[in-house]
Design a protein that fits this description.
With about 550 residues, the protein is an alpha/beta fold. The protein folds into five domains: about 1-45, no CATH class; about 80-145, no CATH class; about 150-300, no CATH class; about 300-390, no CATH class; about 395-559, Isoleucyl-tRNA Synthetase, Domain 1 (Orthogonal Bundle). Helices cover about 50% and strands about 10% of the residues. The protein has helices at about 1-25, 50-60, 90-115, 130-135, 135-145, 150-175, 180-200, 205-210, 240-255, 270-285, 285-290, 315-335, 345-365, 385-390, 425-430, 460-470, 470-480, 495-515, 525-550; strands spanning about 30-35, 40-45, 75-80, 120, 200-205, 225-230, 260-265, 295-300, 300-305, 370-375, 400-405, 410, 420. The strands form five sheets. The protein has a four-stranded parallel beta sheet with strand order 4-3-7-8, with helices on both faces. Strand 12 and strand 13 (about 420) form a beta hairpin. Helix 13 (about 345-365) packs across helix 14 (about 385-390) and helix 17 packs antiparallel against helix 18 (about 495-515). The protein starts with a helix and ends in a 9-residue tail after the last helix.
């Protein structure tokens, strides 16, 4: 009886295998073989030629649609991470935390835009320190707006609403007073009216939480939120109320009918209380805010271990940048010696690499964890300083991370830590020029005319299957549960997955490039494999470029 049951199961699975083989002709990728797994599962083998051709054709097009077959919710995001006044007790720590807040915000904006999600970035440059503004200068210029004038209307509306609510509350209180003391009541009424004109207005945030059935504790709102002043006696708005007006204006200009709006608040550890206060005040005054989905993300701090702790500048962003630049210069000096240049162009290149390394170090750490930058170590490793390590490759033979030359990746090699580009001929071919300028190789053919059946190496299949094919999933996974989150649950975002993806990709690409001769002798029978491999490299380049853009790292156009 048991044997017959197994036979029935095998028969049904074989029917499924036959169906898969015939119907996969209409799937995104054709299945060449389907086998039974030893544990009654199904093992599918993709048609390599079909998979290579479809993915490479797609990724080498001008504007590949990564998410054309992925169904995603597309809400409007408001990234409400703003600069904060630094804590005088530890200004360097607050500045570093603020920098992380800005970098995570820019990363999330880049991911949302990449997925086609409409996003508004509401960081106000006037609230960002000059050093941080310099590090994120391009992003701030391109993706932020000044809301000072445009949000005045929303601010005036909020002030009038607060005054009206306060007057109604006072009037109700006066009506409840003892009517038997008419004379005293009249005098008290006059004094109350005079007092009402000069008294500040506050909101009790606990009442807002209770009225709107919001969750406290755990992953909900802080339990120590209480009464907060929103208007002074002179009717000057508080800082929180001004930010509410900016959020309200940003929401109104982006809101579309029947599209859910998600307000994503990113804050440093010291500003979590402030950010939640802003959001609750906003919810109490705005119907639009109450209809939005609030998400609060508190980032871990950024700690620095320095050689000495005597200088007040130790641990500042400026000192960290200087340290990274110094290490980059030392790495170049090991290779080139006295030939290392210190002109303005070279200094700017090192500064660009240093900024990219800092971004990589910060974003490679899980959002809730502490970023640890150890400036006291002389021997850099991937664990202690991944950004600088990947930029200069001081440790031999670990893995490589692409930097850029002429808008195309190069590979940093081991040993002396000097960035070595791919061969000039390969850069020329992959850039789409179609020839190397010497006439040795034939013109680059259209992708439709390339035969990818010659790509038989396991490393080639791995680059395509593990990286090019998985890249859209990586982008979606970066946003974690952002589409399904409910109030009071943890928001999981994973920018560190992009960093790990680049680590792994650059390592495997380095192995493939060191083992495989790309531009071999231009004999007629070798030309097809040259073209196929160059198209594969072009696909990998596209994935690398887009991965770095997700981290808000711009290409270095010249080494």
């Amino acid at each position: 009886m048991y044997q017959n049951s197994n036979q029935v199961t095998v028969f049904k699975l074989e029917d499924i295998l036959e169906t898969i083989s015939t119907s996969s002709q209409h799937w995104p990728f054709k299945v060449s073989d389907a086998k039974l797994h030893p544990q009654n599962g199904i093992f599918l083998k993709l048609d390599r030629l079909d998979t290579f051709k479809k993915i490479i054709t797609k990724y080498t097009s001008q504007n590949p649609e990564y998410f054309s077959t992925i169904e995603t919710v597309r809400p409007v995001f408001i990234l409400a991470a703003s600069g904060r006044k630094r804590d005088s007790k530890n200004p360097n720590l607050e500045e570093r935390n603020q920098l992380r807040c800005q970098m995570v915000t820019h990363h999330l904006r880049a991911v949302c835009q990449f997925m086609g999600i409409k996003v508004k970035h509401l960081t106000m440059p006037d609230e960002v320190s000059p050093t941080i503004y310099n590090l994120t200068e391009e992003s701030v210029k391109k993706n932020t707006e000044s809301f000072e004038n445009n949000s005045l209307v929303a601010l005036e509306t909020f002030v009038k609403q607060l005054e009206k609510d306060s007057e109604l509350s006072s009037r109700k209180q006066r009506e409840e007073e003892d009517v038997d003391k008419s004379k005293l009541s009249e005098g008290t009424d006059t004094n109350s009216r005079q007092k009402q004109q000069t008294t500040s207005i506050s909101l009790n945030l606990k009442d807002v939480i209770l009225d709107q059935n919001l969750v406290t504790g755990g992953h909900g709102y802080l339990s120590n939120l209480g009464e907060i002043e929103v208007l002074t006696e002179e009717r000057s708005p508080s800082r929180q109320l001004i930010e509410c007006a900016k959020l309200e204006f940003g929401l109104k200009i982006e809101r579309e009918k029947d599209i859910p709006v998600m307000a994503l608040h990113i804050s440093t550890p010291s500003q979590n209380h402030h950010q939640q206060s802003v959001e609750l005040i906003w919810r109490s005054l705005s119907e639009s805010a109450r209809n939005s989905v609030p998400v609060h993300i508190t980032l871990g701090p950024v700690s620095v271990t320095a050689v000495t702790a005597n200088s007040t500048d130790v641990g500042s962003i400026a000192s960290i940048i200087a340290s990274y630049e110094s290490e980059l210069r030392e790495a170049s000096a090991v290779k080139y010696g006295d030939e290392v240049q210190d002109n303005e162009d070279e200094i700017q290149k090192r500064r660009t690499l240093a900024k990219a390394a800092i971004k990589f170090d910060i974003l490679s750490t899980a959002l809730g964890s502490t970023v640890k930058i150890d400036m006291s170590q002389k021997d850099l490793t991937a664990e202690s300083r991944p950004g600088v390590f990947c930029s200069v490759q001081l440790c031999q033979g670990e893995f490589t991370l692409p930097v850029y030359i002429n808008e195309h990746p190069c590979l940093t090699t081991g040993g002396s830590g000097v960035e070595q580009p791919w061969g000039a001929e390969i850069i020329w071919f992959v850039s789409g020029m179609g020839k190397d300028g010497s006439g040795i190789y034939p013109p680059f053919p259209p992708v439709e005319e390339v035969g990818f059946s010659c790509l038989r190496e396991n490393d080639e299949w791995k680059l395509l299957l593990h990286y090019a094919m998985q890249f859209p999933d990586l982008v979606a996974e970066t946003l974690g549960n952002i589409f399904t989150i409910t109030q009071g649950s943890r928001c999981n975002l994973y920018p560190n997955k992009v960093c790990r993806f680049l680590y792994s990709l650059s390592r495997d690409l380095s192995v493939y490039y060191s083992r495989t001769h790309i531009l071999v002798e231009p004999r007629p029978h070798l030309i097809p494999i040259i073209h196929a491999r160059l198209y594969l490299l072009k696909t990998v380049m596209r994935v690398m470029e887009d991965s770095l853009r997700l981290l808000d790292i711009e290409p270095l156009h010249q080494m």
